[in-house]
From TrEMBL:
<feature type="binding site">
    <location>
        <position position="2"/>
    </location>
    <ligand>
        <name>Mg(2+)</name>
    </ligand>
</feature>
<feature type="active site">
    <location>
        <position position="2"/>
    </location>
</feature>
<comment type="function">
    <text>Catalyzes the condensation of isopentenyl diphosphate (IPP) with allylic pyrophosphates generating different type of terpenoids.</text>
</comment>
<feature type="binding site">
    <location>
        <begin position="47"/>
        <end position="49"/>
    </location>
    <ligand>
        <name>substrate</name>
    </ligand>
</feature>
<feature type="binding site">
    <location>
        <position position="167"/>
    </location>
    <ligand>
        <name>substrate</name>
    </ligand>
</feature>
<dbReference type="GO" id="GO:0033850">
    <property type="term" value="F:Z-farnesyl diphosphate synthase activity"/>
</dbReference>
<dbReference type="GO" id="GO:0005829">
    <property type="term" value="C:cytosol"/>
</dbReference>
<keyword id="KW-0460">Magnesium</keyword>
<feature type="binding site">
    <location>
        <position position="15"/>
    </location>
    <ligand>
        <name>substrate</name>
    </ligand>
</feature>
<dbReference type="GO" id="GO:0005886">
    <property type="term" value="C:plasma membrane"/>
</dbReference>
<dbReference type="InterPro" id="IPR018520">
    <property type="entry name" value="UPP_synth-like_CS"/>
</dbReference>
<feature type="binding site">
    <location>
        <begin position="3"/>
        <end position="6"/>
    </location>
    <ligand>
        <name>substrate</name>
    </ligand>
</feature>
<keyword id="KW-0479">Metal-binding</keyword>
<dbReference type="GO" id="GO:0000287">
    <property type="term" value="F:magnesium ion binding"/>
</dbReference>
<feature type="binding site">
    <location>
        <position position="51"/>
    </location>
    <ligand>
        <name>substrate</name>
    </ligand>
</feature>
<comment type="subunit">
    <text>Homodimer.</text>
</comment>
<protein>
    <recommendedName>
        <fullName>Isoprenyl transferase</fullName>
        <ecNumber>2.5.1.-</ecNumber>
    </recommendedName>
</protein>
Length: 228
């Protein structure tokens, strides 16, 4: 969800105004995904690298995220959305915010409409390192380690591989996001800044994805006797 700062800058506003404006986009996309039948939606809200931002901005983000979580918990529960939080390992996260994350996860644990994973204090490399440590602690022999077994040691191992990554504002970087799970993901880079991203933009990205030929390293199926 990229472009909050640039959105604010274009309007001669502080960066925090862009983060505040992003709330509407978040809720709109969640509703659009659920209505479109998306079963798994992940939002990259705060990375391990985002701790390098100015302290005042980080503090604002922590307060903003807490307000958003508490405000929209009833809506997420009513919509049948199961909420999970990927990361949340850094001790700098306020205890109250971490507790709100836990409370929302427990509140929505039995929902089956859609799984919403919020990546907060998330880093793909860290997840892979932690999975390797978990494998070592389990005593799994090296020659028995497979991709499936390794994936079972990642956080939330029931999460399927990512099909589509949408990165707004035209930026074209992975930025340490779910590195294991995005191995065969399709990518779409809409130019719109995140605070202006809405349901029609999201649905346009889904349409782009559905038009792509997903071969996973193979070749297209033959049609009408065409051997190409």
């Amino acid at each position: 969800m990229d472009g909050n700062g640039r959105w604010a800058q274009q309007r001669s506003l502080p960066r925090t105004a862009g983060h505040r404006a992003a709330e509407t986009a978040v809720i709109d996309v969640i509703e659009a995904a659920r209505s479109a039948g998306v079963e798994w939606l992940s939002l990259y809200a705060f990375s391990t690298e985002n701790w390098n931002r100015p302290g005042a901005e980080v503090e604002f983000l922590m307060r903003l995220v807490r307000r958003v979580v508490r405000k929209h918990a009833p809506l997420l529960l009513a919509r049948g959305i199961r909420c999970r939080f990927l990361g949340v390992a850094d001790p700098r996260i306020p205890r109250e915010l971490a507790q709100d994350f836990d409370d929302l996860a427990v509140l929505t644990a039995d929902n089956r409409g859609m799984t919403l994973t919020v990546a907060f204090d998330h880093g793909g490399r860290r997840d892979i390192v932690e999975a390797a440590r978990s494998l070592i602690r389990s005593g799994t022999p090296a020659d028995e380690v497979t991709e499936r077994i390794f994936a079972d040691h990642l956080p939330f191992p029931d999460t399927p591989d990512v099909d589509l990554v949408i990165r707004t504002s035209g930026e074209q970087r992975i930025s340490n996001f779910m590195l294991w799970q995005v191995a065969y993901a399709e990518w779409v880079f809409p130019e719109v800044l995140w605070p202006e991203f809405r349901a029609p933009d999201f649905l346009a990205c889904l349409h782009t994805y559905r038009r792509r030929d997903r071969r996973f390293g193979g070749v297209p199926a033959r049609t009408n006797g065409d051997p190409s």
